[in-house]
Amino acid sequence: MKAAWLLLWFAAGVQAHAQAGAPLPTAEAAAWLQKMADAAHRMAYEGVFVVQQGEAMQTLSVSNRPSGLGNESRLQAMDGSQREVRCSQTGAVTVEAFGSQVKIEKRLNRRHFPDLLPANALPLVNWYDVRLGEPARVAGLDCRNVEVLPKDNFRWGYVLCAEKDSGLPLKAVVINGSSQPLMQYTFAEIRLGAAPRLGSQPPLPEMPDAARPLDAERVSAKSLPPGFTRIAAVMRHLPNTQGEVEHWVFSDGLTHISLFLTPASKPVENFRGESARGMINLMRRQVGGFQATVLGDAPWAAVEAIALGLEPKK
Hints:
The protein is mostly beta strands. The protein has two domains: 2-200, Clam (outer membrane lipoprotein receptor (LolB), chain A); 211-312, Phosphorylase Kinase, domain 1 (2-Layer Sandwich), CATH 3.30.200.100. It contains three helices and 20 strands. The model is unreliable at 1-16 (pLDDT under 50).
C-alpha cells in the first residue's frame, strides 16, 4: 500500500510534462530561469520540504536570509541523523552530531533546494529547452510548472513549480530522458518574505580549511560534454580516506560531476556502475599513475565522456 501511494505521488510530480507547450523563445526562457534563480538567492523564506528518491523519504527544514554580501542559509534534517548544512558568502559546511561528538566538514557546493539554479542562469538556455506547464498548488501557494529539459543526453531534466509572484521553486522533480522521475523535492509548508530565525544557530568553532589549491595538475580533461566547464580543482581530505585526494568539479550550471584522483600503486581495474535508481553514475579507470573516479548525478553519457577524455599531463 505504501509503495503504491509513493508511486502515485511521484507520478503526479511529472504529470505536467505531458501537458507542457512548445519550447519558449530564448529570451522568454532565459527570463523564467533567471526569475527562479533570483528568487532562491535573494528572497527571505523558511519552510519544511520533503525529498524523495524511490521509496526513501526525508523531511528537512530550510531557512534563507539575504545579506549585504549575498545570502545565508541553513538546511536541517528533521528525521534520521542530526545533520545540517550552513551556507554563506564565505563558504559552506556540513555539521553532523553523533551523541556528544560533532563533526564539521567544509563543502565545495553552496547550493541546495530550492536554490538549484546558478546565480547567472541565462547560459542554461544553450543546453536546455524551457516549456511552460499547467498551474498547480504546492504548500498552499499557487505556482506554475516550468520544464527545464536537456537538448542532448548529457544532463537530466527538471520540472519546477515556480510560485506565481516571486518565481521561487516550491517543487522540483528531476527526470531522466524517458521522463521518469529520479528525485523529488516538495515544500510541505513555507513562509515567504519573513525574516528567518537564523540568528539562533550556535556559532561554529574555528576549523582548518579542508581544501587547498592544486600544486600541479596531474591530468588534463581533453574532452568535456557541451556546456560543461571545470569550476573547482583542489586537494582535500575526504571522510574515511588517508591523505589528500585531488578533487575536480565540472558543471554546466545545473548538473555537477566530480573527478577524484588518487595515486595508483597497482594497475586499476576499469569499473562502471550506477545507483539503484540510476541517478548517480560512476566510472573508474587508470590515467597515467593515478586512479581516476568520475561520478555525479548525471546521465552515463556525461560521466563516460569526462572519464574517457582524461589524459596524463605532459
